[in-house]
Amino acid sequence: MVDRAALPWLHVALESGRGGCYEAFQLAATALRQPVHVAPVEDAVTEARLARLEALPVENWFLNVNEPADLAQAETWLAGRGA
């Protein structure tokens, strides 16, 4: 979960065009005096704390869409699922 107070840092990261937001999360956490917690989803699945999503491989749970080609790939994947 991300606190709405982090929005200014996330907005700056998005507008900078760097394509990633983890640095923004770290900067926001420091400014807000909050820790950053990373949840290893792969471990949770392996340990059966989370069920697999429709047998979708874990590496495909999250798509990194930073470039137009990434968006096209995501749209192709979604179209193939009938979404």
In terms of DSSP E residues, the strand content is: under 5%
Largest sheet: none
Q: What is the number of E strands?
A: 0
Mean pLDDT value: 76
Helicity level, as a percent range? 40-55%
- Write down the secondary-structure element order: HHHH
How far apart are the first and last residues' alpha carbons, in Å? 25 Å
Q: What count of domains describes the coordinates?
A: 2
Shape: flat
Q: Based on helices, strands and strand pairing, what is the structural class? A: mainly alpha
The total of helices stands at 4
- Radius of gyration equals 16 Å
Low-confidence parts? none
Secondary structure: elements and pairs:
Layout: H1 7-16, H2 22-31, H3 41-46, H4 68-80
Helix pairs in contact: 1-2
Can you tell me about this structure?
About 45% of the residues lie in helices and about 0% in strands. It is mainly alpha-helical and about 80 residues long. The protein folds into 2 domains: about 1-40, no CATH class; about 40-83, no CATH class. Helix 1 (about 5-15) packs antiparallel against helix 2 (about 20-30). The radius of gyration is 16 Å and the shape is flat. The model has no long low-confidence stretch (mean pLDDT about 75).
What is this structure, in a nutshell?
With 83 residues, the chain is mainly α. The mean pLDDT is 76.
Primary descriptors:
83 residues, mainly alpha
